[in-house]
Design brief:
431 residues, mainly beta, Jelly Rolls, Immunoglobulin-like, 2 domains, 7-stranded mixed beta sheet, 26 strands
Length: 431
C-alpha cells in the first residue's frame, strides 16, 4: 500500500460508499470497476453510490453532493484533477462532527492480481479501511493549510484482504480543523465544512473462463508446495493423498455428481508393480477414493459436505501408462444440491494411495520410480431437466498435474491414456 499526498484536505466523518456498478473491460483477461463520488454533480443531489451514517443520522442514508459547510452545505468543489467527474459529498446534517461512508463492490472467486488505485480528498481528517483492514493511515488537511489529494494504491496477489463476493471500503471522516487527529469536533463557524471526494478503480485478473482444473498433494489450488511428493519408500504405513479441484464455470446451479479422468505415466518401459493398484495387480485395494472434506483441508470450497458417495477404478496398464476414473454423486433430493458461484474453486475428490507392500516380504517394486499424474477432465453433472445441462472442464487452471518422486523428467501433460473404457461400466459399480 502506498499513499501520496498531492494536494488535498480531509474533514472529519465516517462514510459508507458503494462502488459504482459501471464495469469496463480493460483486456480479455482483466476487468475494472470504476467508482467516484457525486457523479451527478448537482448540488444537494443524493449520491446513489454513497451511503453515510453519523451521530445525528444513525440509519444509513444516501450522502448528498456538497461541502457540508453550514453557510452553504451544497456548495460543490471539484479539485481532483478531473473536472466533471467526481464531486465532494457530505452528510445531510451540517452540524455533524464526524461520519462514516462505505463502498461495496463485488469480486469473483479465484480472481487474482487485484489492484485498488484511487485519489481521495477529505475535509478535515480521515482514514480508509478495506473489509476492516486499514489501508490508508491517517489522511489530514494541515491546520490552516491547503487541502491534500491522497493517491492510494493497494495490491493483493490473491484474495486476502480483498474477498470473493461483497467487499466494503469504509471512510472515517472527522471535522477537526485545528489538529491532525481522528477526533471529531464541533463546527467552528458557518464556513467549517466536512466532506469527502474520491475517484478510482479496482482492477483484477479474471478467473479462467469456462472453469479450470487443479491437482496437487494434500490440498487444492495447484500450489507449488503441493506439486511433488517425495517418499523414502521405507514403510508400509500411511498413505498419500491427491486432491483434485476445479474452478467453477458459468451456470452450475444444481451439481449432483462429478465424473473424473486422470492419466498416470511412469519412467521406464512398463508401469512399476507398486503402481498397479487394480484388482489382480501387485497392490490391489491400495487406491481408494474419499469425498469428505469436512475435517479439512479448508483452502477451497467444500460443496459435498461429506455426503457424496462413489468410487475409483484403474484400467489395465499399457506400457508405462494407465488411466484412473472416479464417479461420485449426491443422492437424489440431497439438501446439499445447489448452485456454486462462478469462479469458485471447489474440492472435487481425494485419491488416497496407501503405502502397503512397499517393503518386506511380498513387497512390490517401483515405489522410487518417478511418475506423472495428470487430471485430464471433470464432468459436472446436473439434473436432466436443468436448463444449463452438464459442464465439462478439460483445461488446467493453475496446474492440473502432480508428480511422484520428481516425475518423469519431461512435460507431465504429455502423459496420455492407455485406453478408453465406457463410463457405464464404471458407474454401474456405484448405482
Amino acid at each position: 500500500m502506498r499513499i501520496h499526498p498531492l494536494s488535498f484536505a480531509f474533514r472529519a466523518f465516517v462514510a459508507i460508499i458503494v462502488l459504482m456498478a459501471g464495469v469496463s473491460r480493460v483486456a480479455d483477461a482483466r476487468d475494472t470497476i470504476l467508482f467516484l463520488s457525486g457523479p451527478a454533480g448537482t448540488p444537494c443531489a443524493q449520491d446513489p453510490n454513497v451511503v453515510f451514517t453519523s451521530p445525528s443520522v444513525p440509519t444509513p442514508q444516501a450522502a448528498i453532493v456538497g461541502t457540508g459547510a453550514p453557510a452553504d452545505p451544497c456548495f460543490v468543489e471539484d479539485d481532483l484533477g478531473h473536472p466533471g467527474k467526481s464531486k465532494c459529498v457530505t452528510t445531510t446534517n451540517s452540524s455533524d462532527a464526524y461520519a462514516t461512508f462505505t463502498v461495496q463492490f463485488t469480486l469473483p472467486a479465484n480472481c487474482s492480481n487485484i489492484d485498488l488505485d484511487m485519489r481521495v480528498k477529505v475535509d478535515d481528517v480521515g482514514d480508509l479501511y478495506l473489509n476492516g483492514f486499514e489501508i490508508s493511515g491517517m489522511m489530514c488537511k494541515p491546520p490552516n493549510g491547503p487541502q491534500l489529494v491522497y493517491h492510494l494504491t493497494y495490491h493483493d496477489n490473491f484474495l486476502h484482504h480483498f474477498v470473493a463476493g461483497t467487499n466494503t471500503l469504509t471512510f472515517f471522516v472527522y471535522n477537526n480543523p485545528g489538529a491532525c487527529a481522528l477526533v471529531g469536533v464541533a463546527r467552528s463557524d458557518a464556513n467549517d465544512a466536512m466532506n469527502l471526494q474520491f475517484e478510482g478503480t479496482v482492477s483484477y485478473d479474471k478467473p479462467p473462463s469456462g472453469g479450470g482444473l487443479n491437482l496437487g498433494w494434500d490440498d487444492c489450488g495447484g500450489l507449488p508446495a503441493t506439486g511433488n511428493k517425495t517418499f523414502a519408500c521405507d514403510t508400509n504405513a500411511g498413505f498419500n493423498t491427491l486432491i483434485g479441484s476445479f474452478i467453477t464455470p458459468c451456470c452450475v446451479t444444481e451439481m449432483t455428481a462429478n465424473e473424473v479422468v486422470m492419466d498416470l505415466q511412469s519412467t521406464g518401459v512398463t508401469l512399476p508393480a507398486w503402481w498397479n493398484m487394480r484388482t489382480g495387480g501387485c497392490r490391489p485395494a491400495s487406491l481408494t477414493a474419499n469425498f469428505d472434506f469436512t475435517a479439512g483441508p479448508f483452502t477451497c470450497y467444500d460443496y459435498w459436505q461429506g455426503s457424496a458417495v462413489g468410487g475409483i477404478s484403474m484400467v489395465p496398464p499399457q506400457g508405462n501408462r494407465t488411466r484412473i476414473k472416479l464417479v461420485f454423486a449426491l443422492a437424489p433430493g440431497d439438501p446439499h444440491i445447489g448452485g456454486i458461484l462462478e469462479g469458485t474453486e471447489v474440492y472435487s475428490f481425494k485419491a488416497r494411495i496407501s503405502n502397503t507392500k512397499t517393503v518386506g516380504l511380498g513387497s512390490c517394486a517401483g515405489c522410487a520410480t518417478g511418475v506423472c499424474i495428470v487430471l485430464q477432465s471433470i464432468k459436472i453433472n446436473q439434473p436432466a431437466d436443468n436448463p444449463y445441462g452438464g459442464k465439462y472442464i478439460g483445461s488446467p487452471a493453475t496446474r492440473a498435474f502432480a508428480t511422484w518422486q520428481g516425475g518423469i523428467g519431461s512435460n507431465c501433460y504429455a502423459a496420455t491414456p492407455a485406453k478408453n473404457v465406457t463410463w457405464g461400466s464404471i458407474k454401474a459399480q456405484y448405482h
